[in-house]
Amino acid sequence: MEERLKQPIEVIFNDDDFFIINKPYDCRIQNYPNATDPSVESILKEQFPHISKFRNVHQLDYATSGVFVLALNKKAAASASLLFKERSVKKSYLALVTGHLKEQSYFIDKPIGDDPNHAFRMCIEPTTGKAAQTQVEVLLRGHYKYKEEKTGIEKVIPVSKVKLSPISGRRHQLRVHLRSIGHPIIGDFNYEDVYTDTFRMMLHAHEIMIPLPGKSLRVNTKDPFIALIE
Predict the structure, then answer these.
(1) Which of 95, 103, 167, 217 has the fewest CB atoms within 10 Å around its CB?
(2) Which of 61, 109, 115, 197 is catalytic?
């Protein structure tokens, strides 16, 4: 088990209804039978034994870190789940992508469907795919220095840090859309043509705004990539 998954999970907001955390990267949300690695569920149960149940209201990929919302009761869970389903929740992500994007912003409007050649991946599917839109804003261009996990060889590659605002919520949407414009996310084993063998996939859920009845709940996390670009 990695040492970082033995550490307490950062809580960035909590009240009587919601518990919002900064999810670690490479960490499952729920426990699975016979699984030995920690999950968000198992870590929180150990960290907060007095809380009887955490209720999931949305999903975040295993490799993605950042803002993750849990409800503490049925009413809050139903309310938030409906807002996610209706796409009333606004989310933004940070990512490091390969290369230097030419433009300062992009609006990607490309339908996404299952990849017929791979059981796990999604792809741009103009005929049968579901509508998907992502706003991309370039925040910084620079270089990323890293050592390959397997070989230890030091490399330096051009990268861009981007802010991503998904309008729809398709599976792997951000990863597929960025690949489609020739700038896949660094460390994304499934969508980089030439895999960057670094310590993690560089995608982070940075901010969320939930328009709850009577109030709007807005929370964000620190930028985990701030020291990675030269």
Answers:
(1) 103
(2) 61
Active site residue 16: no
Helix (H, G, I), strand (E, B) or coil at 89: coil
Q: Side chain identity at 16, as an amino acid letter?
A: D
Are the CB atoms for 177 and 110 separated by under 8 Å? Answer: yes
Per residue in 167-219, pLDDT (tens digit) is 999 999 999 999 999 999 999 999 999 999 999 999 999 999 999 988 899 99
Query: Residues 72-86: pLDDT tens digits?
Result: 999 999 999 999 999
Question: Among residues 49, 61, 53, which one has the least CA distance to residue 8?
Answer: 49
For 92-142, how does the pLDDT look when each residue is reduced to its tens digit (9 = 90+)?
A: 999 999 999 999 999 999 999 999 999 899 999 999 999 999 999 999 999
